[in-house]
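User: Quick sanity check before I run a bigger batch. Here is a single chain. Can you write out its predicted 3D structure?
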Amino acid sequence: MITLADETLLRRAVALAARAGALGDAPYGSLLAGPDGAILAEAHNTVRRDDDITAHPELKLARWAARELDPDLAARTTLHTSCQPCGMCAGGIVRSDLGRVVSALSTEQLVELNPQSGAWPTVAQDGPALFDEARAPLDAHYRPGP
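Assistant: Done. Predicted structure follows.
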């Protein structure tokens, strides 16, 4: 359920998105709020400026939270973002154990506004292969012997 406090923070995320656009980057912005609603960190897209395809604000904040926040606090945070996170960012959010995500636009709404956003090709993949060889380092790490 989206609250009035969420709407206020979403407006800030949208303002961060506008700032990114004004600076020449893609117009996406996000912020991470603590359990009390206080803003812990903010970010906007810097893919073009940083020449870094991973410089999405959601991923930058997920990485920040994983480095800087106690896991219990991270689990009680809310990421407010101008647009629903992409697959790359969603993976980072899951791995950093953020508690909740609230977005101003869905991916479907983004694609309606910018059809090119939904035109990412899929990458051909083959495999799995070499199961016994590939599992050896995993077994050593996750199931160390006596």
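The radius of gyration is 18 Å.

User: Great, the batch can go ahead then.
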